[in-house]
What we know:
Chain A is mainly β. Chain A contains no helices and twelve strands. The model of chain A has no long low-confidence stretch (mean pLDDT about 95).
Amino acid sequence: AQTVTQSQPEMSVQEAETVTLSCTYDTSESNYYLFWYKQPPSRQMILVIRQEAYKQQNATENRFSVNFQKAAKSFSLKISDSQLGDTAMYFCAHYYGSARQLTFGSGTQLTVLP
Amino acid sequence: GAVVSQHPSRVICKSGTSVKIECRSLDFQATTMFWYRQFPKQSLMLMATSNEGSKATYEQGVEKDKFLINHASLTLSTLTVTSAHPEDSSFYICSAPGGGMSYEQYFGPGTRLTVT
Lengths: 114, 116
């Protein structure tokens, strides 16, 4: 079974600073995908970034980047130049193709302070 | 990107009644949809996988007779909470996988159910 662990229930960061959210996972699959989703107070799930496991290069999307360590099964999210609108719950998720299901971590509530 | 809608966004019902929640893929077809339940400040818990033209697959511990799922077309899945009780009050979210090789899930905006 796939499991995803987020060990930081809550984090805060000053506006314009950088913050890193941690995520580890366990899987027996060789080909899979990892995602970070953001859930703001509206509760709409928003895709932040995704990483294909077969790609060694870390994914980046503007101010968001990941540190993907496949051997260590680690997938952290770095948010640079934090903005107030980044305040949200962040979920790390694992996906593998045969079941087409996402397995979510428990989430990290990030608060960006002015 | 693809859009998934849910209706209603909020519903209040009395204990013992049933309530139906609709999940629609607006600009793509979805042979599979997923239903999640989310309690405050917690993660999404997968309840069931809705399959177009066949029976839904329920996760362990989810009562099939209480949470009826129907996937009547390639763009619509419904979740009916039967004989609702206050403990069924929660936030329900549906999602649908994008087609092709995207592997991305598109989420509906969620439905807040309150049972009084």
